[in-house]
Specification:
Length: 518
Amino acid sequence: MTSDYLVIGSGVAGLTFSVKIAEKFPERKVVIVTKADEDESNTKYAQGGVAIVLNKEDDSFKKHIQDTLIAGDGLCQKGVVEMVVEEGPDRLEELLLWGANFDVDDAGKFDLGKEGGHSEYRIVHHKDITGYEIERALLQRVHQLPNITILPHHFAIDIVTNHHIKSASTDKLTCFGAYVLDQKTGRIFTIKAKSTLLASGGIGCVYGHTTNPVIATGDGIAMAYRAKARIEDMEFVQFHPTALYEAKGESSFLISEAVRGFGAYLRNKKGYRFMPDYDERAELASRDIVSQSIDNELKKSGDTNVYLDCTHLDMEAFKSHFPNIYSECLKRHINVETDWIPVVPASHYLCGGIKVNTKGKTTIKNLFACGECSRTGLHGANRLASNSLLEALVYAHNIYRHHCEHQIETVNIEIPDWNDEGTTITKEHVLIQHNLKELQALMRDYVGIVRSNRRLKRAIKRIDLIHSEVEDLYRESKISTSLCELRNMVNIAHLIIVQSLERTENKGGYFNIDNVKK
Protein backbone atom coordinates (compact mmCIF):
# COMPACT_ATOMS: atom_id res chain seq x y z
CA MET A 1 0.00 0.00 0.00
CA THR A 2 1.18 3.55 -0.65
CA SER A 3 0.08 6.79 0.98
CA ASP A 4 1.17 10.38 1.22
CA TYR A 5 0.80 10.36 5.00
CA LEU A 6 0.95 7.33 7.27
CA VAL A 7 -0.39 7.89 10.80
CA ILE A 8 0.23 5.21 13.43
CA GLY A 9 -2.32 5.65 16.22
CA SER A 10 -5.91 6.90 16.42
CA GLY A 11 -5.96 9.09 19.53
CA VAL A 12 -6.31 12.86 19.61
CA ALA A 13 -2.79 13.42 18.21
CA GLY A 14 -3.12 11.18 15.15
CA LEU A 15 -6.73 12.09 14.36
CA THR A 16 -6.20 15.85 14.68
CA PHE A 17 -3.30 15.79 12.23
CA SER A 18 -5.21 13.50 9.86
CA VAL A 19 -8.30 15.73 9.76
CA LYS A 20 -6.28 18.90 9.16
CA ILE A 21 -4.03 17.49 6.44
CA ALA A 22 -6.90 15.69 4.67
CA GLU A 23 -8.99 18.87 4.61
CA LYS A 24 -6.05 20.91 3.26
CA PHE A 25 -5.02 18.42 0.57
CA PRO A 26 -8.12 16.49 -0.58
CA GLU A 27 -6.12 14.97 -3.46
CA ARG A 28 -3.64 13.32 -1.08
CA LYS A 29 -4.09 10.03 0.74
CA VAL A 30 -3.94 9.59 4.52
CA VAL A 31 -3.75 6.09 6.05
CA ILE A 32 -4.35 5.61 9.78
CA VAL A 33 -3.14 2.34 11.30
CA THR A 34 -4.54 1.41 14.70
CA LYS A 35 -4.10 -1.91 16.46
CA ALA A 36 -7.52 -2.19 18.12
CA ASP A 37 -10.90 -0.59 17.36
CA GLU A 38 -10.56 2.84 15.80
CA ASP A 39 -11.72 4.58 18.99
CA GLU A 40 -9.45 2.65 21.39
CA SER A 41 -6.65 4.92 22.61
CA ASN A 42 -5.36 6.65 25.73
CA THR A 43 -7.39 9.69 24.62
CA LYS A 44 -10.62 7.77 25.20
CA TYR A 45 -9.77 7.30 28.89
CA ALA A 46 -8.71 10.89 29.62
CA GLN A 47 -11.23 11.93 32.26
CA GLY A 48 -10.09 15.36 33.42
CA GLY A 49 -10.06 17.68 30.41
CA VAL A 50 -7.99 20.23 28.52
CA ALA A 51 -6.12 22.97 30.40
CA ILE A 52 -6.80 26.23 28.53
CA VAL A 53 -6.77 29.84 29.75
CA LEU A 54 -10.21 31.30 28.98
CA ASN A 55 -11.19 33.39 32.01
CA LYS A 56 -8.80 36.31 31.55
CA GLU A 57 -10.26 38.18 34.57
CA ASP A 58 -8.85 35.68 37.08
CA ASP A 59 -6.47 33.64 34.96
CA SER A 60 -3.68 34.43 32.49
CA PHE A 61 -1.25 32.71 30.14
CA LYS A 62 1.49 33.76 32.57
CA LYS A 63 -0.15 31.84 35.43
CA HIS A 64 -0.65 28.68 33.34
CA ILE A 65 2.95 28.88 32.11
CA GLN A 66 4.19 29.30 35.69
CA ASP A 67 2.11 26.34 36.95
CA THR A 68 3.54 24.16 34.15
CA LEU A 69 7.12 25.23 34.91
CA ILE A 70 6.68 24.55 38.63
CA ALA A 71 5.28 21.05 37.96
CA GLY A 72 8.13 20.33 35.50
CA ASP A 73 10.65 21.11 38.28
CA GLY A 74 13.12 23.13 36.23
CA LEU A 75 13.33 20.76 33.25
CA CYS A 76 10.63 22.22 30.97
CA GLN A 77 11.70 24.15 27.87
CA LYS A 78 10.19 27.55 28.62
CA GLY A 79 9.73 28.51 24.95
CA VAL A 80 7.77 25.30 24.32
CA VAL A 81 5.59 25.90 27.41
CA GLU A 82 4.79 29.45 26.26
CA MET A 83 3.91 28.29 22.74
CA VAL A 84 1.63 25.45 23.89
CA VAL A 85 -0.22 27.50 26.52
CA GLU A 86 -0.75 30.49 24.23
CA GLU A 87 -2.10 28.38 21.36
CA GLY A 88 -4.69 26.69 23.61
CA PRO A 89 -7.72 28.91 22.86
CA ASP A 90 -7.26 28.55 19.06
CA ARG A 91 -7.04 24.77 19.28
CA LEU A 92 -10.18 24.66 21.45
CA GLU A 93 -12.01 26.72 18.82
CA GLU A 94 -11.21 24.03 16.23
CA LEU A 95 -12.53 21.26 18.49
CA LEU A 96 -15.79 23.18 18.86
CA LEU A 97 -16.03 23.58 15.07
CA TRP A 98 -15.58 19.82 14.70
CA GLY A 99 -18.50 19.24 17.06
CA ALA A 100 -16.90 18.49 20.43
CA ASN A 101 -19.13 19.40 23.39
CA PHE A 102 -17.89 20.77 26.72
CA ASP A 103 -19.77 21.50 29.94
CA VAL A 104 -21.18 24.99 30.45
CA ASP A 105 -22.70 26.68 33.51
CA ASP A 106 -26.14 28.28 33.84
CA ALA A 107 -24.83 31.48 32.25
CA GLY A 108 -23.67 29.56 29.16
CA LYS A 109 -19.96 29.96 29.95
CA PHE A 110 -17.54 27.04 30.12
CA ASP A 111 -17.76 25.28 33.48
CA LEU A 112 -14.03 25.33 34.22
CA GLY A 113 -12.49 22.78 36.60
CA LYS A 114 -9.39 22.93 38.77
CA GLU A 115 -6.85 20.12 39.26
CA GLY A 116 -3.67 19.45 41.21
CA GLY A 117 -0.88 21.91 40.45
CA HIS A 118 -3.18 24.52 38.85
CA SER A 119 -3.51 27.92 40.51
CA GLU A 120 -6.83 28.75 38.79
CA TYR A 121 -9.96 27.13 37.35
CA ARG A 122 -9.03 26.44 33.70
CA ILE A 123 -9.91 22.83 32.84
CA VAL A 124 -12.40 22.58 29.97
CA HIS A 125 -14.21 19.26 30.34
CA HIS A 126 -17.13 17.08 29.31
CA LYS A 127 -18.40 15.46 32.53
CA ASP A 128 -15.67 12.98 33.49
CA ILE A 129 -15.25 11.55 29.96
CA THR A 130 -13.59 14.46 28.15
CA GLY A 131 -11.20 12.33 26.10
CA TYR A 132 -14.05 10.10 24.97
CA GLU A 133 -16.01 13.14 23.74
CA ILE A 134 -13.03 14.57 21.81
CA GLU A 135 -12.35 11.16 20.25
CA ARG A 136 -16.01 10.89 19.18
CA ALA A 137 -15.98 14.31 17.49
CA LEU A 138 -12.69 13.68 15.69
CA LEU A 139 -13.73 10.25 14.40
CA GLN A 140 -17.00 11.69 13.15
CA ARG A 141 -15.04 14.25 11.13
CA VAL A 142 -12.57 11.61 9.88
CA HIS A 143 -15.44 9.56 8.43
CA GLN A 144 -16.60 12.60 6.45
CA LEU A 145 -13.28 12.83 4.61
CA PRO A 146 -12.97 10.39 1.68
CA ASN A 147 -9.16 10.66 1.43
CA ILE A 148 -8.64 9.13 4.90
CA THR A 149 -8.47 5.34 5.24
CA ILE A 150 -8.56 3.81 8.74
CA LEU A 151 -7.13 0.31 9.19
CA PRO A 152 -8.38 -0.98 12.56
CA HIS A 153 -6.88 -4.18 14.00
CA HIS A 154 -3.64 -3.54 12.16
CA PHE A 155 -0.38 -3.57 14.10
CA ALA A 156 2.70 -1.59 13.02
CA ILE A 157 5.68 -3.91 13.57
CA ASP A 158 8.57 -1.67 12.56
CA ILE A 159 9.14 1.53 10.64
CA VAL A 160 11.06 1.10 7.37
CA THR A 161 14.37 2.97 7.15
CA ASN A 162 17.63 2.83 5.18
CA HIS A 163 18.57 -0.24 7.26
CA HIS A 164 15.97 -2.26 5.33
CA ILE A 165 16.80 -0.94 1.85
CA LYS A 166 20.09 -1.57 0.11
CA SER A 167 19.29 0.82 -2.75
CA ALA A 168 18.33 3.80 -0.55
CA SER A 169 20.32 6.69 -1.99
CA THR A 170 19.96 9.13 0.89
CA ASP A 171 22.80 9.31 3.42
CA LYS A 172 20.58 10.72 6.16
CA LEU A 173 18.61 8.18 8.17
CA THR A 174 15.14 8.33 6.59
CA CYS A 175 11.75 6.75 7.23
CA PHE A 176 9.92 5.31 4.21
CA GLY A 177 6.82 3.87 5.91
CA ALA A 178 6.18 0.78 8.00
CA TYR A 179 5.70 -2.98 8.06
CA VAL A 180 2.16 -3.69 9.21
CA LEU A 181 0.43 -6.87 10.46
CA ASP A 182 -3.22 -7.44 9.57
CA GLN A 183 -4.25 -9.07 12.84
CA LYS A 184 -7.30 -10.78 11.35
CA THR A 185 -5.54 -12.50 8.45
CA GLY A 186 -1.98 -12.70 9.77
CA ARG A 187 -0.65 -11.08 6.57
CA ILE A 188 2.29 -8.69 6.87
CA PHE A 189 2.54 -5.97 4.24
CA THR A 190 4.32 -2.66 3.71
CA ILE A 191 2.80 0.79 3.68
CA LYS A 192 5.09 3.12 1.77
CA ALA A 193 4.65 6.75 2.83
CA LYS A 194 6.23 10.10 2.08
CA SER A 195 5.68 11.14 5.69
CA THR A 196 5.07 8.98 8.77
CA LEU A 197 3.61 10.18 12.09
CA LEU A 198 3.98 8.12 15.26
CA ALA A 199 0.99 8.96 17.48
CA SER A 200 0.96 5.65 19.29
CA GLY A 201 0.29 6.67 22.90
CA GLY A 202 1.84 5.59 26.18
CA ILE A 203 3.62 2.78 28.00
CA GLY A 204 1.44 2.02 31.04
CA CYS A 205 1.22 -1.73 30.49
CA VAL A 206 4.96 -2.05 31.09
CA TYR A 207 4.01 -1.76 34.79
CA GLY A 208 0.85 -3.88 34.66
CA HIS A 209 -0.95 -1.79 37.27
CA THR A 210 -1.96 1.16 35.13
CA THR A 211 -4.74 3.59 34.30
CA ASN A 212 -3.99 3.03 30.60
CA PRO A 213 -5.88 0.64 28.31
CA VAL A 214 -4.30 -2.72 27.39
CA ILE A 215 -3.02 -1.27 24.09
CA ALA A 216 -0.55 1.07 25.85
CA THR A 217 2.59 -1.00 25.27
CA GLY A 218 5.01 1.69 24.04
CA ASP A 219 5.01 0.46 20.44
CA GLY A 220 5.88 3.76 18.74
CA ILE A 221 8.75 4.59 21.09
CA ALA A 222 10.17 1.06 20.75
CA MET A 223 9.95 1.20 16.93
CA ALA A 224 11.68 4.59 16.89
CA TYR A 225 14.35 3.35 19.33
CA ARG A 226 15.14 0.31 17.18
CA ALA A 227 15.37 2.62 14.16
CA LYS A 228 17.97 4.72 16.05
CA ALA A 229 15.81 7.79 16.77
CA ARG A 230 16.77 9.78 19.84
CA ILE A 231 14.78 8.87 22.98
CA GLU A 232 14.93 11.06 26.08
CA ASP A 233 13.55 11.47 29.63
CA MET A 234 12.22 7.92 29.92
CA GLU A 235 12.88 7.93 33.66
CA PHE A 236 10.01 10.38 34.16
CA VAL A 237 7.07 8.00 34.45
CA GLN A 238 4.13 9.73 36.07
CA PHE A 239 2.10 7.66 38.50
CA HIS A 240 -1.48 8.77 38.95
CA PRO A 241 -2.11 8.98 42.71
CA THR A 242 -5.66 7.66 42.66
CA ALA A 243 -6.43 4.56 40.64
CA LEU A 244 -9.24 2.47 42.10
CA TYR A 245 -7.77 -0.38 44.18
CA GLU A 246 -9.24 -3.84 43.87
CA ALA A 247 -7.77 -6.62 45.99
CA LYS A 248 -8.56 -9.36 43.50
CA GLY A 249 -6.66 -7.99 40.55
CA GLU A 250 -5.21 -5.20 38.48
CA SER A 251 -7.56 -2.26 38.16
CA SER A 252 -7.27 0.28 35.41
CA PHE A 253 -10.14 2.53 36.47
CA LEU A 254 -9.00 6.05 37.17
CA ILE A 255 -10.46 8.31 39.84
CA SER A 256 -9.85 11.66 38.17
CA GLU A 257 -7.58 14.34 39.59
CA ALA A 258 -10.62 16.60 39.32
CA VAL A 259 -12.27 14.73 42.22
CA ARG A 260 -9.57 16.10 44.53
CA GLY A 261 -9.97 19.46 42.82
CA PHE A 262 -13.65 19.20 43.74
CA GLY A 263 -12.69 18.86 47.41
CA ALA A 264 -12.15 15.16 48.20
CA TYR A 265 -9.70 14.23 51.00
CA LEU A 266 -7.07 11.50 51.09
CA ARG A 267 -7.11 9.44 54.30
CA ASN A 268 -5.21 6.43 55.62
CA LYS A 269 -6.96 3.35 57.02
CA LYS A 270 -7.34 5.03 60.44
CA GLY A 271 -9.13 7.98 58.84
CA TYR A 272 -6.23 10.40 59.22
CA ARG A 273 -5.99 13.06 56.49
CA PHE A 274 -2.26 12.89 55.75
CA MET A 275 -1.60 15.18 52.74
CA PRO A 276 -1.29 18.43 54.78
CA ASP A 277 1.73 16.78 56.47
CA TYR A 278 3.54 16.59 53.13
CA ASP A 279 2.60 19.76 51.24
CA GLU A 280 0.81 23.00 52.06
CA ARG A 281 -1.39 22.45 48.98
CA ALA A 282 -2.55 19.16 50.55
CA GLU A 283 -4.62 17.10 48.05
CA LEU A 284 -4.03 19.76 45.36
CA ALA A 285 -0.26 19.25 45.27
CA SER A 286 1.11 18.02 41.94
CA ARG A 287 0.87 14.33 41.07
CA ASP A 288 4.48 13.44 41.85
CA ILE A 289 4.16 14.76 45.40
CA VAL A 290 0.79 13.11 46.03
CA SER A 291 1.99 9.76 44.61
CA GLN A 292 5.22 9.79 46.63
CA SER A 293 3.25 10.76 49.76
CA ILE A 294 0.83 7.85 49.31
CA ASP A 295 3.76 5.51 48.61
CA ASN A 296 5.39 6.65 51.85
CA GLU A 297 2.16 6.15 53.83
CA LEU A 298 1.79 2.62 52.45
CA LYS A 299 5.42 1.74 53.23
CA LYS A 300 5.02 3.03 56.80
CA SER A 301 1.75 1.19 57.48
CA GLY A 302 2.15 -1.91 55.34
CA ASP A 303 -1.36 -1.27 53.98
CA THR A 304 -2.27 -2.02 50.38
CA ASN A 305 -4.15 1.21 49.72
CA VAL A 306 -5.31 4.56 51.05
CA TYR A 307 -8.78 6.11 50.68
CA LEU A 308 -10.40 9.02 48.90
CA ASP A 309 -13.17 10.53 51.03
CA CYS A 310 -15.97 12.30 49.11
CA THR A 311 -18.68 11.87 51.76
CA HIS A 312 -18.60 15.54 52.82
CA LEU A 313 -19.15 16.85 49.28
CA ASP A 314 -22.36 18.15 47.65
CA MET A 315 -23.46 14.79 46.27
CA GLU A 316 -25.88 16.09 43.65
CA ALA A 317 -23.11 18.29 42.23
CA PHE A 318 -20.69 15.33 42.44
CA LYS A 319 -23.05 13.11 40.43
CA SER A 320 -23.45 15.86 37.84
CA HIS A 321 -19.69 16.40 37.46
CA PHE A 322 -18.58 12.76 37.75
CA PRO A 323 -21.42 10.48 36.61
CA ASN A 324 -19.09 7.84 35.20
CA ILE A 325 -16.95 7.65 38.35
CA TYR A 326 -20.08 7.50 40.54
CA SER A 327 -21.63 4.65 38.53
CA GLU A 328 -18.37 2.68 38.20
CA CYS A 329 -17.91 2.83 41.99
CA LEU A 330 -21.49 1.60 42.50
CA LYS A 331 -20.77 -1.34 40.18
CA ARG A 332 -17.96 -2.25 42.57
CA HIS A 333 -20.29 -1.89 45.60
CA ILE A 334 -18.78 1.44 46.67
CA ASN A 335 -21.37 4.10 47.44
CA VAL A 336 -19.48 7.38 47.20
CA GLU A 337 -22.10 9.09 49.41
CA THR A 338 -21.22 6.92 52.41
CA ASP A 339 -18.08 4.93 51.54
CA TRP A 340 -14.48 5.96 51.09
CA ILE A 341 -12.99 4.95 47.72
CA PRO A 342 -9.93 2.65 48.06
CA VAL A 343 -7.15 4.05 45.84
CA VAL A 344 -3.53 3.34 45.00
CA PRO A 345 -1.00 5.01 42.65
CA ALA A 346 -0.72 3.42 39.20
CA SER A 347 1.40 4.01 36.11
CA HIS A 348 -0.36 6.77 34.20
CA TYR A 349 1.71 8.91 31.85
CA LEU A 350 5.18 9.09 30.32
CA CYS A 351 6.76 12.56 30.26
CA GLY A 352 9.63 11.45 28.01
CA GLY A 353 9.70 9.61 24.70
CA ILE A 354 10.80 10.27 21.12
CA LYS A 355 12.65 13.57 21.02
CA VAL A 356 11.01 16.09 18.67
CA ASN A 357 11.46 19.76 17.85
CA THR A 358 8.63 22.31 17.88
CA LYS A 359 7.49 21.03 14.47
CA GLY A 360 7.20 17.45 15.74
CA LYS A 361 10.25 16.30 13.73
CA THR A 362 12.24 13.39 15.15
CA THR A 363 15.94 12.81 14.50
CA ILE A 364 14.94 10.58 11.54
CA LYS A 365 14.00 12.31 8.27
CA ASN A 366 10.29 12.12 7.31
CA LEU A 367 9.40 10.68 10.73
CA PHE A 368 7.29 12.79 13.09
CA ALA A 369 5.93 12.05 16.56
CA CYS A 370 3.06 13.55 18.52
CA GLY A 371 1.17 12.94 21.76
CA GLU A 372 2.35 10.80 24.64
CA CYS A 373 4.98 8.91 22.62
CA SER A 374 6.85 12.19 21.99
CA ARG A 375 9.17 14.20 24.20
CA THR A 376 8.50 17.85 23.36
CA GLY A 377 10.00 19.61 26.38
CA LEU A 378 6.59 20.75 27.65
CA HIS A 379 6.35 18.45 30.68
CA GLY A 380 9.93 18.46 31.96
CA ALA A 381 10.18 16.17 34.98
CA ASN A 382 6.44 16.00 35.65
CA ARG A 383 3.34 16.73 33.58
CA LEU A 384 0.85 19.26 34.89
CA ALA A 385 -2.65 17.75 34.96
CA SER A 386 -4.70 18.16 31.74
CA ASN A 387 -1.74 19.49 29.73
CA SER A 388 -1.46 16.29 27.66
CA LEU A 389 -4.54 16.70 25.43
CA LEU A 390 -3.51 20.35 24.94
CA GLU A 391 0.01 19.29 23.90
CA ALA A 392 -1.36 16.76 21.40
CA LEU A 393 -3.65 19.34 19.81
CA VAL A 394 -0.92 21.98 19.52
CA TYR A 395 1.76 19.64 18.16
CA ALA A 396 -0.62 18.00 15.68
CA HIS A 397 -1.30 21.52 14.39
CA ASN A 398 2.44 22.33 14.23
CA ILE A 399 3.16 19.14 12.26
CA TYR A 400 0.28 19.98 9.91
CA ARG A 401 1.61 23.51 9.44
CA HIS A 402 5.10 22.17 8.68
CA HIS A 403 3.65 19.92 5.97
CA CYS A 404 1.81 22.88 4.47
CA GLU A 405 5.04 24.87 4.27
CA HIS A 406 7.37 22.09 3.08
CA GLN A 407 6.80 19.90 0.04
CA ILE A 408 6.95 16.18 0.86
CA GLU A 409 9.39 14.35 -1.33
CA THR A 410 8.54 11.40 -3.53
CA VAL A 411 11.09 8.66 -2.89
CA ASN A 412 11.28 6.09 -5.67
CA ILE A 413 12.51 3.01 -3.87
CA GLU A 414 11.37 -0.57 -3.61
CA ILE A 415 10.74 -1.73 -0.06
CA PRO A 416 11.53 -5.43 0.35
CA ASP A 417 8.71 -7.71 1.51
CA TRP A 418 8.69 -8.89 5.09
CA ASN A 419 10.89 -11.98 5.33
CA ASP A 420 9.84 -14.64 7.85
CA GLU A 421 11.53 -17.56 6.16
CA GLY A 422 12.48 -20.31 8.61
CA THR A 423 10.04 -19.20 11.32
CA THR A 424 7.21 -21.30 12.75
CA ILE A 425 3.92 -20.55 14.50
CA THR A 426 4.81 -20.70 18.17
CA LYS A 427 2.89 -23.09 20.39
CA GLU A 428 4.72 -21.72 23.42
CA HIS A 429 2.38 -18.86 24.36
CA VAL A 430 3.21 -19.64 27.98
CA LEU A 431 6.69 -18.19 27.31
CA ILE A 432 5.18 -14.88 26.22
CA GLN A 433 2.83 -14.69 29.21
CA HIS A 434 5.51 -15.73 31.71
CA ASN A 435 7.98 -13.15 30.44
CA LEU A 436 5.28 -10.47 30.42
CA LYS A 437 4.33 -11.12 34.06
CA GLU A 438 7.99 -11.22 35.09
CA LEU A 439 8.66 -7.94 33.27
CA GLN A 440 5.70 -6.15 34.88
CA ALA A 441 6.55 -7.41 38.38
CA LEU A 442 10.17 -6.34 37.87
CA MET A 443 9.12 -2.81 36.86
CA ARG A 444 6.66 -2.42 39.76
CA ASP A 445 9.06 -3.73 42.40
CA TYR A 446 12.37 -2.26 41.21
CA VAL A 447 11.49 0.72 38.97
CA GLY A 448 8.40 2.18 40.66
CA ILE A 449 7.56 5.48 42.33
CA VAL A 450 10.60 5.37 44.64
CA ARG A 451 13.80 3.85 43.18
CA SER A 452 17.31 3.02 44.36
CA ASN A 453 20.55 2.36 42.49
CA ARG A 454 20.71 -1.15 43.95
CA ARG A 455 17.24 -2.05 42.66
CA LEU A 456 17.91 -0.43 39.28
CA LYS A 457 21.16 -2.39 38.85
CA ARG A 458 19.36 -5.61 39.66
CA ALA A 459 16.62 -4.65 37.23
CA ILE A 460 19.09 -4.12 34.35
CA LYS A 461 20.51 -7.63 34.83
CA ARG A 462 17.07 -9.20 34.80
CA ILE A 463 15.82 -7.17 31.84
CA ASP A 464 18.87 -8.27 29.83
CA LEU A 465 17.93 -11.92 30.44
CA ILE A 466 14.30 -11.32 29.44
CA HIS A 467 15.47 -9.42 26.35
CA SER A 468 17.67 -12.32 25.27
CA GLU A 469 14.80 -14.83 25.64
CA VAL A 470 12.30 -12.63 23.81
CA GLU A 471 14.67 -11.89 20.92
CA ASP A 472 15.31 -15.65 20.47
CA LEU A 473 11.55 -16.26 20.39
CA TYR A 474 11.06 -13.36 17.95
CA ARG A 475 13.66 -14.74 15.52
CA GLU A 476 12.16 -18.25 15.58
CA SER A 477 8.44 -17.44 15.50
CA LYS A 478 5.83 -16.19 13.09
CA ILE A 479 4.84 -12.67 14.10
CA SER A 480 1.99 -12.23 16.56
CA THR A 481 0.69 -9.07 18.23
CA SER A 482 1.37 -10.38 21.74
CA LEU A 483 4.98 -11.24 20.87
CA CYS A 484 5.59 -7.85 19.26
CA GLU A 485 4.03 -6.03 22.20
CA LEU A 486 6.22 -7.95 24.64
CA ARG A 487 9.31 -7.13 22.57
CA ASN A 488 8.33 -3.45 22.57
CA MET A 489 7.73 -3.44 26.33
CA VAL A 490 11.16 -4.99 26.95
CA ASN A 491 12.72 -2.16 24.91
CA ILE A 492 10.73 0.41 26.91
CA ALA A 493 11.68 -1.14 30.26
CA HIS A 494 15.36 -1.13 29.22
CA LEU A 495 15.16 2.57 28.31
CA ILE A 496 13.45 3.50 31.61
CA ILE A 497 16.00 1.59 33.70
CA VAL A 498 19.09 2.85 31.85
CA GLN A 499 17.95 6.47 31.83
CA SER A 500 16.99 6.19 35.51
CA LEU A 501 20.53 5.10 36.34
CA GLU A 502 21.91 8.04 34.36
CA ARG A 503 19.92 10.60 36.39
CA THR A 504 21.87 11.66 39.47
CA GLU A 505 19.41 14.29 40.77
CA ASN A 506 15.81 13.86 41.90
CA LYS A 507 13.43 15.91 39.82
CA GLY A 508 9.64 15.99 39.57
CA GLY A 509 8.29 12.49 39.13
CA TYR A 510 11.72 10.85 39.49
CA PHE A 511 12.79 9.94 43.01
CA ASN A 512 15.84 7.81 43.84
CA ILE A 513 16.72 7.39 47.54
CA ASP A 514 20.44 7.37 46.65
CA ASN A 515 20.16 10.88 45.18
CA VAL A 516 18.95 12.38 48.47
CA LYS A 517 21.67 14.64 49.83
CA LYS A 518 22.73 13.41 53.25
